[in-house]
Amino acid sequence: MSNSTYTANGENGDQGSTEGELNEWKQRPPYRVHDEAADFKVRYEGSCHCGKVRYQLSREKPLDAKFCHCTTCQKIHGAPFQWAAIFHKDDINFTHGHHDLGWYESSEKTCVHKLPCKVSCAYCRTPIMDEGRNMILLFPTLIDFKTPEDRKNFDPSCHMFYTRRVLDINDGKPKWTGINDSSDLIADSPQEAVNELKRKRQDEEQGKSKKDQK
Q1: I need a surface site. Which of 41, 120, 167, 177 has the fewest CB within 10 A?
Q2: If DSSP codes are grouped into helix, strand and coil, which group holds residue 213?
Q3: Residue among 8, 26, 21, 11 nearest 94 (CA)
């Protein structure tokens, strides 16, 4: 056991210190602990499977919520698709487990904290969130919803990368071939969503033509 990188203070080898250059991430959102006297209204609580990592959320509704069917999400979550909710980094407050977090940067396949990256519990390996440069994507299945209304606040607005799906989902939501608003809607998307996208792209083309004529 003497050769192990794991410690009692942190299953990822973190010694629990908040000092020094290597620990600067602990002083910044989303990892910075909100002071008890700070204006942080707790709206939801969530945790990993083993309970070592626990957090609070202050925002009543995410900025958006989506189902992602890309192959990376399928493999990392071991599931047909990922359900993710977007929050500001200041919307979360980790109450337990700062020293039990692990990172994975999928493009370079490295475990360093390099944005954007995937964050998980280093003990039970539960995916906690995807940390981007400006936002975080949380996974609502980790949240302890108290009421059906709370759960409904996290209803997804659309499907992304639906052409890579492993099963069909007939829920009437817009279904994009890639990133929403930056790709195409497939045939079984709601007609109003298809029409809105068509109008939006026509307006963009007209705006571009007017700009080129100046």
Answers
A1: 167
A2: helix
A3: 26
